[in-house]
Specification:
The chain has 4 helices and 5 strands; from the N terminus they run βαβαβαββα. The protein is α/β, with parallel strands linked by helices and 112 residues long. The protein has one domain: 3-Layer(aba) Sandwich (Glutaredoxin), CATH 3.40.30. Strands 1-3-2-4-5 form a 5-stranded mixed beta sheet, sandwiched between helices. α2 crosses α4.
Length: 112
């Protein structure tokens, strides 16, 4: 299983719409932050293991795609943080966590 990077607000809108049909897990990642690098490793460990096949996985780089990151925060009513994972269903935030709490174990507990 792989994740897809989105870079435009239009792509975000597509992800949000798809959440009405299947779960969407978004990871917001800073390419300059060591905590975020750790979170991305944890996310990748989950993806390369036995991820939930009924969920789509999406990456947003918060520096390079700031407008998308801001739109996600606004649309879902979540405070922007990085690193951050957000699980959405039915066009709403179901679960979110950030920083050192972004772990394979936490993602597994929510999605499985």
């Amino acid at each position: 299983m792989n994740w897809k990077e989105i870079t435009t607000e239009s792509e975000w809108n597509d992800v949000l719409q798809r959440s009405a049909e299947r779960g969407q897990l978004i990871i917001k990642h800073s390419t300059t932050c060591p905590v975020s690098a750790n979170a991305l490793r944890e996310f990748d460990e989950y993806i390369t293991g036995q991820p939930n096949q009924d969920v789509d996985y999406t990456l947003v780089k918060v520096i390079e795609s700031r407008p998308v990151s801001n739109q996600i925060a606004g649309d879902l009513g979540v405070k922007h943080e990085s690193p951050q994972v957000i699980f959405i269903k039915n066009k709403e935030k179901y679960w979110t966590t950030s920083h050192w709490s972004v772990t394979k174990e936490h993602i597994t507990a929510v999605l499985d």
